[in-house]
From TrEMBL:
Gene3D superfamilies: Bira Bifunctional Protein, Domain 2, GAD-like domain, Nucleic acid-binding proteins. This is Aspartate--tRNA ligase. It is found in: Cytoplasm. The lineage of its organism: Bacteria, Bacillati, Bacillota, Clostridia, Lachnospirales. One of its GO terms (molecular function) is aspartate-tRNA ligase activity.
Length: 586
């Protein structure tokens, strides 16, 4: 502790007259004269002003590079000019001695510590240990620690037991690329880092544990996004035995809102029960399976009213409309919004307005004049309404309308309640879908989900009509997690996989432990795993997930601070039986 008596955020007026020893980083010095200056000393807890009043001490402080760590011993006194913005703003310390504990070797820093967020991202990540000295940046990591601690306490209070699961495991088809680890003792074979503890937590249920949770590290070799970190992430992983969908909902509806309300930049969060929206209804009304319920606008079907209006892009297509009442946007703003829709969705957006005289104007209005009354009635239009439109296949029209809804809601005033956290459950996902690349029947979400209707549905229903007990937790338009009631019956499991072309032997080969465990009698069980990183990002009000991770990678999955990924020497490669082949010349 270097003998410090107090930290830099601790001293108050009642400490005046005391002799103290402080340690921390030498943030800066403001020189008034050769024997008067003001030093800011900073540590994890805050800052304290040091007043230098002798020429000798001024020379000593002036010789120290900023960001060196120092020890200052002196006497606390009341400040004549107080700073109400600082916790220690009523006092200052008059030093007797100063000692350098760790010298900063550089006079010039890569960026000013308190303005590090203004530096470019790669510089911040390369010097992340300096970036984290910025109190604003550090506060997000402190916040993360508090949230994780509260999540743990809340789960324990709900009788969940924290159990850690293996990091080295086998490759499993979770939907993303695995990170592979060569097995030194088993030439040609590889471990995989877990994309999620999915199989292990289900095996725990088969082992007789009733309620499991873990702040679980997960590893997926996927590209970065604003709300997704490449490489690794953490989730609040949980599973419940002898439980159904409603049991899972009840736990998270009790655990999450108080934490969001306590720590969030908004102090209002949905209370139980969260709104439940079937998947097909979500796509039809919101154009998204992760709807932002803060936006009041809804998607309407306009196919019957507009498909035969004579506008070529609508001919024979599904047409969706988003009506924004009492619209105040300008033509320039409308054009910008339409351009953004095309960039995001790859589809065009169209529009028209109903002016104050009840006439249809602007955009594609000239194609609608002969059907004016039918259009107004079908969309329920009133004077001053703005209508944005999408067209295409059902899926394309829905998704484009969802983008329109979000952009109109967030870009123009009056359509969004911003300062709150709105949760919802999206439920009843399709069990199967036709793969975009394969053109074959594939699992829509988690292959371990229980189909609604069980084996009877698998045998008698159109596979594309079968629903699963799958659910997503969504907050403010961001998917926090997917979960499901698990398929714990080996017979139903085999039948479910048969529909995607995998037989019983394939199931046994791909999931031997889980299949065999379920053959010994498994309880019905269900679970979910909200992303910790995304939760903290939402709570902190940050747009980038990298702001709430202590040592994040950049967008190219590189750790520029540590130099990872990196080459390894030939000896290490030989030990794990790997030979690097030079890429073929084009």
């Amino acid at each position: 502790m270097q003998g410090r008596t107090h930290n830099c955020g601790q001293l108050r007026l009642e400490n005046a007259g005391e002799k103290v020893t402080l340690v921390g980083w030498f943030e800066n010095i403001r020189k008034v004269s050769k024997n008067l200056g003001f030093v800011i000393l900073r540590d994890f807890y805050g800052t304290t002003q040091i007043v230098v009043e002798t020429e000798d001490l001024m020379e000593q402080f002036s010789a120290i590079n900023t960001e060196s760590t120092i020890e200052v011993t002196g006497t606390v006194r009341e400040r004549s000019s107080k700073n109400p913005k600082l916790a220690t703003g009523d006092i200052e310390v008059v030093p007797e001695t100063v000692k350098v504990l760790g010298k900063c070797q550089y006079q010039e820093l890569p960026f000013q510590i308190n303005r590090s967020k203004e530096a470019d991202e790669n510089t911040r990540l390369k010097y992340r240990y300096l970036d984290l000295r910025n109190p604003e940046v550090k506060s997000k990591i402190v916040l993360r620690s508090k949230i994780v601690a509260d999540l743990r306490s809340a789960m324990v209070a709900h009788d969940f037991m924290e159990i850690t699961t293996p990091i080295l495991t086998c490759s499993s088809p979770e939907g993303a690329r695995d990170y592979l680890v060569p097995a030194r003792k088993h030439p040609g074979k590889f471990y995989a880092l877990p994309q999620a503890p999915q199989q292990f937590k289900q095996l725990l249920m088969a082992s007789g544990f009733d309620r499991y949770f873990q702040i679980a590290p997960c590893f997926r070799d996927e590209d970065a996004r604003a709300d997704r970190s490449p490489g690794e992430f953490y989730q609040l992983d949980m599973e419940m035995a002898f439980a159904n969908q409603e049991d899972v909902f009840a736990v998270l509806e009790d655990v999450l809102p108080p934490i969001f309300a306590k720590y969030g930049i908004y102090h209002e969060a949905s209370t139980a029960p969260f709104k439940r929206i079937p998947y097909r209804e979500a796509m039809e009304k919101y154009g998204s399976d992760k709807p932002d319920l803060r936006i009041s606008l809804l998607v309407q079907d306009a196919t019957e009213a507009l498909a035969d209006c004579g506008f070529e892009p609508f001919a024979g297509k599904t047409v969706k409309a988003v009506v924004a009442p009492d619209f105040k946007g300008t033509r320039k703003q409308i054009d910008k919004m339409c351009a953004e829709v095309e960039v995001i969705s790859g589809q065009k957006a169209y529009w028209f307005k109903m002016d104050e005289n009840g006439e249809l104007a602007g955009g594609i209005a000239k194609f609608l004049q002969e059907k004016k009354d039918a259009v107004i009635e079908a969309l329920g239009l009133k004077n001053g309404d703005f209508v944005a439109l999408s067209a295409g296949t059902l899926g394309a029209a829905q998704k484009t309308a969802g983008v329109i809804r979000k952009l109109v809601g967030t870009s123009f005033d009056g359509y969004m309640k911003k300062e709150c956290y709105e949760f919802c459950w999206v439920v009843d996902f399709p069990m199967y879908e036709i793969g975009e690349e394969s053109g074959e029947l594939e699992f829509c979400h988690n292959p371990f989900s229980m189909p609604q209707g069980g084996v009877e549905a698998l045998e008698n229903q159109d596979p594309l009509e079968i629903l699963a007990y799958q659910y997503d937790l969504v907050c403010n338009g961001i998917e926090l997690s997917s979960g499901a009631v698990r398929n714990h019956d080996p017979e139903i499991m085999v039948k479910a996989f048969e529909l995607v072309g995998l037989g019983e032997e394939d199931v046994k080969a791909k999931f031997p432990a889980m299949y065999n465990a379920f053959c010994y009698g498994a309880p019905p069980h269900a679970g979910i795993a909200p992303g910790v990183d995304r939760m903290v990002m939402l709570i902190a009000g940050e747009d980038s997930i990298r702001e709430i991770i202590p040592f994040p990678m950049n967008k190219n999955a590189q750790d520029v601070m540590m130099g990872a990924p990196a080459e390894v020497d030939e000896k290490q490669l030989r030990e794990v039986h790997i030979k690097i082949s030079a890429p073929e010349k084009q």
